[in-house]
Amino acid sequence: MVKKQTAGRDNLGEFAPKFAALNDDVLFGEVWAREKQMSARDRSLITCSALMAQGLFPQLEAHMKMAKENGVTKGEMVELITQLAFYTGWPKAWSAFGIAKEIFTD
Q1: What number does CATH give the domain 40-106?
Q2: Where is each Carboxymuconolactone decarboxylase-like domain found (predicted)?
Q3: In b/e form, how buried is each residue of 26-43, taking b as 16+ CB within 10 angstroms?
Q4: Where in the chain is the domain with CATH 1.20.1290.10?
Q5: How many CB atoms lie within 10 A of CB 3?
Q6: Is the dihedral of CA 72, 74, 76, 78 positive or negative?
Q7: How far is residue 97's CA from residue 103's CA, in Å, rounded to a whole number?
Q8: pLDDT of 41-87, one tens digit each?
């Protein structure tokens, strides 16, 4: 079961309440909760891939933490980054590995 997210309201609730509600209630409350259609683990792998491809490293860090909570292993994250290095760019892989090393080193 996907953990209830409150990041939108916690960070933008007063400044951008509609965006915060869409983030928490629709994206994480409805889309991520569709576990019969796709597991949270697989959604995490896809999301991390998309964020790495775009070079959105602050968001990638947050989603790598979620990925670990959703059962993605260190080995799987290493493979994801290695695979994407050839498609998204070597510097992005270096940046992603820096984040992964912090999150997946126990």
Answers
A1: 1.20.1290.10
A2: 17-102
A3: eebbeebeeeeeeebbeb
A4: 40-106
A5: 11
A6: positive
A7: 10
A8: 999 999 999 999 999 999 999 999 999 999 999 999 999 999 999 99
